[in-house]
Amino acid sequence: MSIAQFFRILWARRWIILATTFVCFVAAMLVARSFPARYQASSRVMLNMFKPDPVTGEAISSGFARAYVKTQGELIRDYRIAGKVVDELGWAENPQLVAAYQRRDPSDQSDVRRWLAQQVMDNTDTKLVDTSNILEIQFTSNSPEQAARIADTVRQAYVDQALTFRRDDAANNADWFRKQATRIRAELTAAEQRKTAFERANGIVLADNDTDVDSARLTALAGAAPPQAAAQIAAAQAVASPQLESANAAIANAEKVLGPNNPELLAMKRQRDAIASTVAAAQRAVSPVAAAAGPSVASLYSAQQQKVLAQRGKVAEAQQLSTDVRVLRDQYAKTAARAAELQQQGESNETGLEMLGSAVVPTSPIFPNWPLVIFGSLGLGFALGLLASLVVELLGRRVRSAEDLTFREVPVLGVMTKAKPVRRSSLLDRLMPFRRPAVQGGY
Question: Which residues span the membrane (predicted)?
Answer without folding.
Answer: 370-392
